[in-house]
Design brief:
single chain; 91 residues; alpha+beta; two-stranded parallel ribbon; two-stranded antiparallel sheet; 42% helix
């Protein structure tokens, strides 16, 4: 476990294992030997992914905004702008 990791207990998302398999087979033509969802969970993150590969998916938990894959770029931008607006309104 990643003792003392600042994002332990936060909800987050990252490429799913099945999405990584597609990348291995069609883009990298090589095996990815690091399982990011597992590593984040072991470090204390609360990782979830959408059941449909490459669908946009964004999770915002406190100051952390994460997107599952490149198709999440627009929803991430919307979440970031909203977070900045909230911060500005609170100042």
């Amino acid at each position: 476990m990643g003792k003392g990791w600042q994002y332990a207990g936060y909800k987050m998302t990252v490429f799913s294992a099945t999405e990584e398999k597609v990348i291995e087979d069609t883009i990298l033509y090589a095996k990815i030997y690091f399982d990011m969802p597992l590593a984040l969970n072991l470090a204390g993150g609360i990782v979830s992914t959408t059941p449909v590969d490459f669908d946009p998916y964004v999770i915002e938990d406190r100051e952390l905004i994460t997107g599952q894959n490149p198709r999440s770029d627009h929803p991430i931008a919307v979440a970031l702008i909203a977070a900045l607006d909230r911060k500005r309104a609170a100042a």
